[in-house]
Amino acid sequence: MGPMAHRIVLLLFLCAVLKGIESKLTSVQECCEAGREIALREHDCTVLPRFTSHICSIAQEHCCRAFAKKRACNNGIKMARGKQACERPFFTGSSWETQISEACCDCCTLGLKMDSMGFSCDFQDLQLDKQCSNAARVCCEKPKEINPNAKAPEETEVFATRPPEEANTCRELNCSQLCVDNGRCACNDGFQLQRDGATCGDINECLNGSHNCSSEQVCVNTEGSFYCQLSCHPGFILTDNIICKDIDECTLGSHDCGANYVCINTAGSFYCEPKVVCRDGYRRNAAGNCIDIDECVVLVNPCRPGQSCINTVGSYSCRRNTVTCPRGYHPTVDGTRCEDVDECLITNMCGKHICVNLDGSYRCECSAGYRFSNTTEVCE
Questions:
Q1: Crossing angle for the helix pair 3-40 and 54-81, to the nearest 10 degrees
Q2: Using an 8 Å Cβ cutoff, are 228 and 218 in contact?
Q3: What is the pLDDT of residues 19-33, one digit of tens each?
Q4: Using 50, 70 and 90 to split pLDDT, how confident is the model at 1?
């Protein structure tokens, strides 16, 4: 095959790959749009039709929740503009939706109050979260009426920066995205107005902490928005099928086992096993060498009572305890101490006379007509 044929094959392969990527992207976008349609009908985003594709189900659920979240916030803004009470019983939807509506209603009330008192509509110093800050700014700047059921754009982010006095029309302002009140530039959600008062720049939600990704997800910034990507625990890697796969450190060579050890892979980790197994009576130290085990220290009562443990190389032995006792005493059964000998039980030391045992000795109490002789130690 010549060079030209190789180029043609390569081009055909690249076209097929790009076509596959485009079809997957279109499929994800369709799944997201399906989630938006469910939210538009005010259905519960937790009860959704199941897709065979896991990534499609994720896109559907989160797009549904994002639309429902913005709609709930817009309901709160509308309630505040109508000068009605910001109480959760007055809002419809699930518990988390009514909570968002109440929060946006309160934040919009803050913006309306700031505007009526003539204060600035810049709420950055208050360190409010993004949703509350946007609601307060929108109500303070008095943009056009919000329609909670509108599909796009659902929310407009307005900044207090004003154009030069001589530019009083949208045509003169040359806004990059939106123009409100016929003399003020504004940005869509996910963008912020730059210092020139006309250009909108992307907000990196991943850097400023305004994203809602969980601890098991990684925030990935996009133009005007962001998305949460599943993050795997240490020892695992995320595959193209959105599955956390175990990393085989032993195969990759990323383990730290020494030369005398074998790497054994486990789920999410590994461990090192000695190449040579030590004989009985030995154990392997940190350097991988076999050393003697002191059984007299490691084992509990390795020898029987009356015996002492003696450690040997690779084993141990038991030796009977022995003590030297004086006259009138003998070693105990365990051989650890001496005890008195009861001579009166051993032999008939006193004959027909009475034998009295003493500590280490004995005494004969003679019958009438006899006396004890210290010399012969008998009754005479």
A1: 40
A2: yes
A3: 443 444 456 777 788
A4: low
